[in-house]
Every structure is written in C-alpha cells, then in structure tokens.
Amino acid sequence: RENLALLPGKKFHAKRNHISKFMRNNPDFCYKELDSSNFEDAYFVAHKWQMSSSAGDTSELLAIREALDNFDALELFGGVLYVMSRPVAMTIGSKINSSVCDVHFEKAVEVDGAYAVINNEFAKSHPEFLQFNREEDLGIEGLRKSKLSYNPDKIYMKYTATLK
Predict the structure, then answer these.
(1) Alpha helix positions (H), 26-113
(2) Which of 19, 61, 90, 114 has a Cα at 20 to 30 A from 50?
(3) What is residue 73's predicted lDDT score, i.e. its pLDDT?
(4) Phi/psi class of residue 86: alpha, beta or left (left: φ > 0; alpha: ψ in -120 to 50)?
(5) Are the CB atoms for 65 and 105 separated by under 8 Å?
(6) Where do runs of H (alpha helix) occur along 10-157?
(7) How far apart are CA 78 and CA 103, in angstroms?
(8) For 156, which DSSP code?
(9) How far is the C-alpha of 126 from the C-alpha of 73, rounded, in Å?
(10) Longest dimension (CA), the chain
(11) Which are the contacts of 92, defined by CB distance < 8 A and separation ≥ 6?
C-alpha cells in the first residue's frame, strides 16, 4: 500500500510522471469515497468502460452492479475520480483482514492517467492497510503488464484444479 500511495524511488518514476501529467491537465480533478450518493457515478464509469472495450462479455459489469447493490452487506468500500465533475474512474475493494485490502474492480474511461490516479488516491485514502491485493491478471497481457508496472511485492502462482 505504501508503494502504491507514495510511489517512492526510481522504479516508480514513470508512474509519478503519469500522475503529474494527469494533475497538470486536470487541475480540477476530485477523488471521493464511494458511498450511496455516488454509486451511479461508479456504475456509469463501469458501463462506459464496458461499452468502449472490445469484450462482449458483460459478466464483470453485472458483478459491479451486484456489488454496488449489496455494498453495505458485503462491507465494500471504494472511490470515484471526477474530472470537471464527470466521473472518469472508479474502484471497489474489501477488507481481507486487518492489514490486507482486496481490490476487486478498477475501471477508468476517457482521461489519460485516470487508472494511475484512482489507484494512487485509493491507496492514500486507506492507510489502515499494509498491503493491497490487486488480484490476478486473468491472462490478459495488457492487464498483466499494467499490474507488473507497480512492482508488486509478491506474485503468487496461479493453479487450476480440474475434475477428471
């Protein structure tokens, strides 16, 4: 979490530059904690992301809707990033234990650097956690590259069990 929030040292130079460029280009940006007042903004971002992606599968969008509909019962938390009062990024996570946060969803649209900023702002807003589990890359090359660009502390082997 600390690395995601502070982006220290040379290995995060490119991330810091990306975020700085976003902030220069969008000085009016705003990060807000996710709650019932902005659920529809978060869903708007997810829906817009779905419409702009080449993925025809809407199961992730349906999962995000279900997560928002059951936000309190699932003990979720998150954030929404705004530029000129327009939602451009969202994230939803949950507590695994007292020191680990699991990031379930992170979506951004339209604005270059929005993914880096939502990630950074979310990490800064939750100093109670020592680690953030950013989940797996699902074998998607671009997602894997993005996740590795944050220099994760640990990468676990993925196993698949099948019945014969």
Answers:
(1) 39-52, 59-69
(2) 19
(3) 96
(4) beta
(5) no
(6) 13-25, 39-52, 59-69, 114-124, 141-148
(7) 9
(8) P
(9) 20
(10) 57
(11) 34, 42, 64, 67, 68, 76, 77, 78, 103, 104, 105, 106
Q: Which pLDDT score is estimated for 54?
A: 65
Tokens of 17: 């530059």
Tokens for 126? 């939750």
Cβ atoms of 118 and 91 within 8 Å: the answer is yes
**Ramachandran class of 143: left when φ > 0, alpha when ψ lies in -120 to 50, beta otherwise:** alpha
For the chain, what is the total number of helices (H) and then of strands (E)? 6, 5
Look at residue 158 in the predicted model and tell me its pLDDT. Answer: 67
| Cα gap 122→96, rounded to integer Å | 16
What is the mean pLDDT of each successive set of 10 residues along the chain, which is 164 residues long?
A: 84 89 95 96 94 76 94 97 97 94 90 93 94 63 50 63 82
Residue 91, C-beta contacts closer than 8 angstroms, at least 6 positions apart:
34, 78, 79, 103, 105, 106, 107, 118, 119, 122
* Residue 87: both structure tokens together: 């939602």
Length in residues, the chain = 164
Q: How far apart are CA 133 and CA 105, in angstroms?
A: 11
Hey, what amino acid is at 10? K
